[in-house]
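Sequence in, structure out.
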Amino acid sequence: MQDQEQWIGIDVCKRWLDVHLRPQKQSFRVSNTASGIRELLTHLCPPEAVARVILESTGGYERSVALVLSTLAYPVVVINARQARNVAKAANQLAKTDPVDAAILAWFGEAMKPPIRSLASKSYFYSATPCFPCLLHPFLRIWVD
């Protein structure tokens, strides 16, 4: 386990999750699928060592990863895409690539420390997938195995 809190930025699209870990400055990409999210979990510190996981709202593509991480007690914050873009502009980061966006999201989380709001609203997740307990089940198994 690490001495410093981990700040995680995840840039979400339909096929991929681009992830950036601070302060490690480690970036990687996983698929936006159940197996990709399982792979993501292998790279993360335990939830109690993570300060924030910052995701950009992307029309629903973020819901599966947000569901899994929040259910496993990670402090997930979903921010508005416009807000994320404004942060990048303020940091004079005009390049628009997924790895850069993930790094900006992690930096935003560390700098601004946005409040953690409950994502437990069933309507938020049910609109993402008609059977979110089915999606979640494999993750709960790997967490306790």
